[in-house]
Specification:
Elements lengths: L1 H20 L7 H16 L3 E11 L2 H14 L6 E6 L2 E9 L2 H11 L7 E7 L10
């Protein structure tokens, strides 16, 4: 009797699986359009949120240029050195890290030369990430 019950259970389970394969979803056109827009938006997205180290924030352009030059001489193996102007300030940011922990490890080295350096998060292209700091 128990064997028959197990056999019948397996039989009905297999029939229900075959029926599930024949089903379809009737999706609203608005939902379909929204999904298409979401897919397109993600294809165009070429950045992720990451961490950089801001070595200086000053309103003096010459200080900013000296800081960039000093950083490049002390850390020649770091190629991503970017600056931005947010009136009236100039900000110099370096590196590109996918975790704050990695940025913090490098920040400890940078603080020796730039005591006011901090970690900041921003949108970074994946190609700019530094995997390992030597």
């Amino acid at each position: 009797m128990r064997l028959l019950l197990i056999f019948l259970s397996l039989f009905f389970f297999s029939i229900s699986m075959v029926k599930a394969q024949d089903s379809f979803v009737n999706e609203e056109p608005a939902v379909t359009n929204l999904v298409k827009k979401f897919i397109e938006w993600n294809k165009d997205k070429n950045y992720v949120i990451g961490w950089r180290i801001q070595i200086i924030n000053t309103d003096d352009r010459r200080k900013m240029e000296r800081a960039m030059s000093k950083f490049r001489s002390k850390f020649p193996y770091i190629s991503n050195v970017v600056w931005e102007q947010v009136n009236p300030y100039y900000r110099v940011k370096v590196g590109g890290f996918n975790s704050k922990l990695k940025a913090q490890a490098f920040l400890d080295e940078v603080k020796e030369y730039f005591p006011s350096a901090i970690t900041v998060w921003e949108k970074i292209r994946e190609s700019e990430f530094i995997e390992r700091v030597d």
